[in-house]
Design goal:
Strand content: 25-35%
Number of strands: 6
Low-confidence stretches: none
Strand order of the largest sheet: 1-2-3-4-6-5
CATH topology: Aminopeptidase
Shape: globular
Order of helices and strands: HHEEEHEHEEH
Largest sheet: 6 strands, mixed
CATH superfamily: Gcn5-related N-acetyltransferase (GNAT)
Number of helices: 5
CATH architecture: 3-Layer(aba) Sandwich
Number of domains: 1
CATH class: Alpha Beta
Mean pLDDT: 93
Distance between the termini: 32 Å
Length: 169
């Protein structure tokens, strides 16, 4: 993600969250936060998703993650999550962690599929409605089990996306 991407990212942010980050927060993350890594997913020139993480000591904390509403359930989120996990491992993170709304079952299922498991709750974490956040974390990113999971899911995603591109059911 670059500064020029912020308007498109913020459009997705506003469409995805009832309490969106302001545009200056993304600019601050990109320009001043040495712990941050942010990326976008594109379909041609259009940004269809984005995600970010902070590396804190040996933990990659996923800070934000969203996909344009019309591109959900098409593999964009999985591709972003796979790339975040690759980035996390490449910068030396031992585990990845995140918070997700307790009510966000589609996101929770995706994170569980990729090896995240619930480890705690942050009561009234979300300021728009005081909903609790479920804290989820992975096992060791470099473990044999986690690497095998990522490799298997990555290969399956590539096949699904290739089938979609060819118009297969």
């Amino acid at each position: 993600m670059g500064v020029d991407d912020i308007p498109a990212v913020h459009e997705i942010e506003r469409a995805s969250f009832t309490a969106p980050w302001p545009t200056y927060a993304f600019r601050q993350e990109l320009e001043a936060n040495r712990l941050a890594r942010y990326l976008v997913a594109r379909d041609g020139e259009r940004i269809v998703g984005y995600a970010g993480l902070w590396l804190m000591v040996d933990e990659a904390h996923i800070t934000t993650f969203a996909v344009a509403p019309d591109r959900r359930r098409q593999g964009v989120a999985e591709r972003l999550l796979l790339e975040l996990l690759r980035i996390a491992e490449s910068v030396g993170a031992a585990v990845a962690t995140l918070e997700v709304r307790v009510s966000n079952l589609p996101a929770r299922r995706l994170y569980e599929k990729y090896g995240f498991r619930p480890v705690g709750v942050r009561p009234r974490y979300y300021t728009d409605n005081n909903e609790d956040a479920l804290i989820m974390t992975t096992g060791e990113l470099r473990s044999r089990d986690m690497r095998a999971r990522i490799d298997r899911l990555s290969a399956g995603l590539r096949l699904r996306l290739a089938d979609q591109a060819e118009g297969a059911p």
